[in-house]
Write a structure and sequence with these properties.
It is built from 5 helices and no strands. The protein is mainly alpha-helical. The chain has one domain. Helix 2 runs antiparallel to helix 3. The longest helix is centred in the N-terminal third of the chain and has 35 residues.
């Protein structure tokens, strides 16, 4: 007869139950983190490629130029991407565990701005260095 009545303990256990898609959310968070890591590796690799291109096509001017600065900037942004995405991964993991996750636009906008600035730097570098722009457009 007592089994038909609910105990207060059963009600509290029901309210503490986690989101049923919690595992799926954690896996999506890990996939997102891995995508950011691939992006960071690509940025660092692109920075190295920019610096190394000088060895294959020496500029007309004997000065070192600014290409290494652009390559260094790509590498630094890649490293910052690793740090920021790792911090974001653990923050989202915590929010998923406590069912308090709210998406933010801040990191997406910040990273998009960084990529736009880097892209503008590449375009400026390609078309401002003497001899480089012409060699990309017409074969010798």
């Amino acid at each position: 007869m007592l089994s038909r009545f609910k105990s207060p303990k059963a009600d509290t256990q029901k309210t503490k139950r986690h989101n049923p898609s919690r595992v799926r959310d954690h896996l999506a968070n890990e996939r997102t983190y891995l995508a950011w890591m691939r992006t960071a590796i690509a940025l660092m690799g692109f920075g190295v490629v920019i610096v190394r291109l000088r060895a294959f096509h020496p500029p007309l001017l004997p000065t070192p130029g600014n290409g290494w600065k652009l390559g260094l900037l790509f590498s630094v942004v890649g490293l910052l991407t690793v740090l920021m995405s790792t911090k974001h991964y653990f923050a989202v993991r915590h929010d998923i565990d406590y069912d308090t996750y709210e998406p933010t636009d801040r990191w997406v906008l910040l990273f998009s701005l960084a990529i736009v600035l880097l892209g503008m730097g590449v375009i400026y570098f390609i078309f401002s260095v003497p001899g480089t722009a012409a060699s990309f457009m017409s074969p010798e």
